[in-house]
Request: fold
Amino acid sequence: MRHITNPLRDGAERGKASVATSDHYPARVLQPHLVSGSPRANAHKTLQVMKFGGSSVNDAACITKVAEIIKNAVLDSDVVVVVSAMRGVTDLLIESATESEAGNQHRVTAIFQEVRQRHESAATALIHAAEKREKIAHGIDELIRDAESVCREILRQRKLTPRMCDSISGLGERLSAPLVAAALEERGLRSQAIEATELIVTDSCYGSAEPYMDLTRERCEARLRPLLMQGIIPVVTGFVAATVDGVRTTLGRNSSDYSGTIMGAALDADEVTLWTDVDGILTSDPRLVPSASSILEMSYREASDLAKLGAKVLHPKTLHALMQSGIPLSIRNTFAPDRPGTKITPDGSSNAAGVRAVTAICDSALITVRASSVLEVPDTLRRTLAIAAAIPFQVRLVPQSSSSKSAICIVVSSNHAESAFDALRGEFAHDLEHEKLKHITLHPSVAVIALVGRNLRNAGDIVERVTAALYRDTLKVFGIAQPSSGSNISFVVAQQDVKLALTIVHRELQLDEHVR
Ligand code: ADP
Ligand code: ASP
Ligand code: MG
Reply:
């Protein structure tokens, strides 16, 4: 039994009993829904938080599907909606900021034209009443003008700070939320678009801010509960938040998933659902492994590992917000809402040892530090890991070749490769000169293929089977990492081999045999 420490900045207990569990995460504490001491707004109804990703709100046709899903859900639940920007819009907005810094006014103008056009045409298709349509069009215009003026300032100063970038990159969510709210009103529902800057309070780490949960809970309660009590569906902007002083922040790229779970935890929801463009979490990325199959149920731990090891379907921080409460998280397909998708619960469905899914972290580099003899290894390892600790390194490997007992291998993300390589060369300059170290090499483009599951150390000869299967197809394995937790095993291959390697591993472990 061990106590779970709070992964967020401040307390999440709010009068709930402290949770101890024999597994990794707490079971949901069953008790009446008391939020900040007050009974749930609509005590007979459950509360659902539904987050819709970029592909779900991509255009008017998608938003129509979203509105239908919400309309069905409100028949028996209170619903808080969280929305992303239309697909690709955040990339465009960040580009507008960097192009402003570079002085490329033409490109900036073209970007805002495209953003304006996409939202105006969605508004035209979604909203029939002229007055309402004009109001929304006016709102779109105002928001885009604001962003354009920030870009003009960046262009004038030729300087882009993370704070300025956050004030522009969140525009997409601020544009999509009113469209979704309007689509709900078109269906006779009452709805209101709300900026998460009013709700989620964060530190000032621009670009990857972290929430202060107690403040966030207070604000969500004060702002959203009265709306729910009046039967109004709040449509909240994902991705964005604000400091205590109201300065705009963002939670990190792809982080609307995290916004969804933050809102779920803050409101003590019964369930959070992330609506996306695939049937839940699959045994691998279906774009790379078309035979991948849906996983019906997973544990928090498995899903969290999968997200951290490259599965784009979940932002790596998504589960952080739920760990204390045990609130279930579902992943469903907006375009096939009848399918069950994946349900993620504290303990998952089974205790059976084995691999659940295989994922890949691309855009990585492999750095090998080779000592001149095995005797030099402990000191070389200690110094290498000290350097690695200062960079976000991903994994330390056991190298595969037999001549490599004296080699230490680490994988870092490509954008840290040069600086890590330089730091290691600086650290070992004297040793290289005096031949205590043979060499330091950098392989600039590798990928980590990660197997995620449960008790993998007791799950048979997985490493042998996978390595043999990869070698059969003449793929080179640079190294293997097998952490003692037994929750994952990683194989490093050349970046160009990712798709093939995933397919081979998926087939070898028979992950596509049936819906799991
Ligand atoms: P959203 O915009 O809804 O947040 P994302 O594009 O961020 O959606 O995530 C969904 C995508 O994640 C899918 O289209 C799929 O290509 C990718 N993906 C990667 N790994 C997996 C996996 N194991 N299961 C499902 N989808 C995955
Ligand atoms: N729109 C944001 C992004 O593209 C957040 C998200 O979609 O999850 O990064
Ligand atoms: Mg996403």
Observations:
- The two ends are 29 Å apart (CA to CA).
- The pocket of magnesium ion (ligand 3) is lined by residues 53, 254, 257 (CB under 6 Å).
